[in-house]
Amino acid sequence: MSAEFAETPENPETTTTPAPPATRGNDDAPAPSAEFHIAAGRGAAGPYALDVSPEKAGWGYSSLRILELPPGGEHSFATGDSEWIVLPLSGGCTVRTDGPEGVSFELAGREGVFSGVTDFSYVPRDAQVRIRSGAGGRFALTGARCERRLPARYGAASDVPVELRGTGSCSRQVNNFGAAGVFECDRLIAVEVLTPGGNWSSYPPHKHDECRPGEESELEEVYYFEIAAAHGTDGLGYQRVTPSGHGRGTEVLAEVRTGDAVLIPDGWHGPSIAAPGHDMYYLNVMAGPGAERAWLICDHPDHGWIRTTWPEQPVDPRLPLYAAPAPAGDPR
């Protein structure tokens, strides 16, 4: 994942540093960046502005769809063999599951990803779901193939842990709405990361591409980006991924803009770089085959030392960009 699931480095799970990978031969040349960087619009399919499925990504578990609805718009989908979280990016909606066990949740949503924490809803596998938005909006559907069928639930914005990770120019904010240990899912892990302009996040580079019990999780990951405009100019950022010696030899050096996504089946990922003056948002979606739903990472052996400098520096004073709202009753 990104280094953003709680920091200790970024999720309070565990960080270890493995030995550097062995030198790779020509037969193991890195896969081209274009295979993993999906520019805005290029991943559109049907009603979705972005549609990343296990089949399209060439992996086993993680999915992400970006749904755009006009005022009064409605969309229905079958969850199939995956669990999903409906997360408003802008606007609010009603989420309803059909059938005798059907439930309905009113999501207040938010103006945009840089304006505040949002509420969300979880819908289980093997269900039919309808999403309707009276005022219109954009909604992320984060998904993971799973085995257990958990009950549909509402997640209040006031219950989302908002944490600050790193210090100095590595400071960032993490909204842990779907982190392991925060909100129950079978396999899905999802968080939001906000990086002030000029800062680096997902740093030091880290990986989670092999199963080493108690040390590292095997997780596929999607990064979905939005970049804040400033002075009438659209923003941009950069994402780096380098081969770890495992999997597909993923290598990415991409200029990313609003609506872009980067697929990370394996490899050292980071930094995610926000251009000065343009705050960066990304949504991390992860899942994998492990029996335990956990986010265990390994720092890159050349760069993990940067963590030792963090206690000497203050957190960027621009953070938090916003905090979770105070509880205001059950909005269902």
Write up what this structure looks like.
- The protein is mainly beta and 332 residues long.
- It is built from one helix and 25 strands.
- Strands 3, 4, 5, 6, 7, 8, 9, 10 and 11 form a nine-stranded antiparallel β-sheet that branches.
- The longest helix has 4 residues, at 54-57.
- The protein is globular, with a radius of gyration of 19 Å.
- The model is unreliable at 1-27 (pLDDT under 50).
Strand content: 35-45%
| Tally of DSSP helical segments | 1
Sequence of secondary-structure elements: EEEHEEEEEEEEEEEEEEEEEEEEEE
Radius of gyration: 19 Å
Number of strands: 25
Can you tag this structure with a few keywords?
mainly beta, seven-stranded antiparallel β-sheet, 1 helix, 25 strands
Summarize the structure.
The protein is an all-beta fold and 332 residues long. It has one helix spanning 54-57, and strands at residues 15-16, 37-38, 48-52, 62-69, 73-78, 82-97, 104-110, 120-123, 128-133, 137-145, 153-155, 162-165, 172-178, 189-195, 200-201, 206-207, 209-212, 216-218, 220-227, 237-242, 252-256, 261-264, 268-274, 280-287, 297-299. The longest helix is centred in the N-terminal third of the chain and has 4 residues, at 54-57.
